[in-house]
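## retry 2 of 3
previous attempt timed out at serialization; input unchanged, resubmitting
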Amino acid sequence: MLGNTQQKAVVDNIINAAPGTKLTDVQFNLDSTSNFFSGDLYIKSFDPSAPVGDKLGFTVNFEGDSTLSLTAE
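## retry succeeded, writing output
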C-alpha cells in the first residue's frame, strides 16, 4: 500500500488529522496504476490495534463526499 503515493497520503492524513477531515482527489489503485477509483472522502474513524509481539494493524472507516470515479484502461 505505501508504494502508492495517494494511499500513503491517506495514511499520513489519518495520522495527523481528526475524524471528519476531508481528503480530496484520493486514488485507490486496483490491479495497476492505470486502473483506479478516485474521489473525495471524509475520515470517519481510525482504530489501531497492536497485539504484543505482533505487527501494528488498523481499521479506517471513511465516507465518500460524492460518487467515486472509475478510471480503467
